[in-house]
Specification:
The protein is an alpha+beta fold. The protein is built from 7 helices and 10 strands. 39% of the residues lie in helices and 17% in strands. The chain has a 4-stranded mixed beta sheet with strand order 7-8-9-10, sandwiched between helices. A two-stranded antiparallel ribbon has the order 1-2. Helix 5 crosses helix 7. The mean pLDDT is 83.
Amino acid sequence: MNSCINCGAPCTVKFCTRSCNISFQNGKRDTAFSQERKRANCIKCNAEIFIKKQQSIACAKCQQCKLIKKKRVRIPKLNKLICQDCRCEFIAGAASFCPVCRKLRQENAGRKSAAAQALLRRSWSEIELGKLCQTHFKHVTFNDPIFPNDPPTETHWDADILIHDHRVAILWNGPWHYRKLRQQHSVEQVQRRDRIKLNRIISAGWHPIVIRDDKGEKNILKVQSVFIELVEKCSSFTLYT
């Protein structure tokens, strides 16, 4: 019985297994050939590089160009365009509006969305109190953002009901302001915003009145009681015409 040329195990032929045959043949190859290098220029940036001797010069690339291809860095084609709003010329890949008009459109869309959400979030009791205020006072608005930030920004703070006759800002705070109602709801963050809003209202020369509504239920008796107290308080404030 013969023994394997590669591992010495007993066998009937030269190699005991196919893997031993491949291992033996690979060891006989001239490894020096694959380690030799030759000069070449990168086909992308023309930088001088060294490549393996068996590698073709026609496809030689430096390491940086290889990484750019790997990351698929795409350089957009820039065009001269005309804004559909202000009709000014600007350079971009593909856009209908210039950066200034695009920002204004986004801000306007955000304000409309915030106003729509404010209307949806108004409770029944808050709406009823607003109706009573409209019957008694001359100038009443709802969710009107008239209180500026400090330092000044483009967005302002609002109040649920604003009585401009006496500069009274009513904040009807429902359960959302006092207890956690869902997983992503942060009571601490809501109350922090409430404190900032109160400070901005006072700084603007208005009188804030906070009405706490823990239950958030329909209660006409509470609305009427709050309205009577509100009329008494407003009578002590200055009347603005």
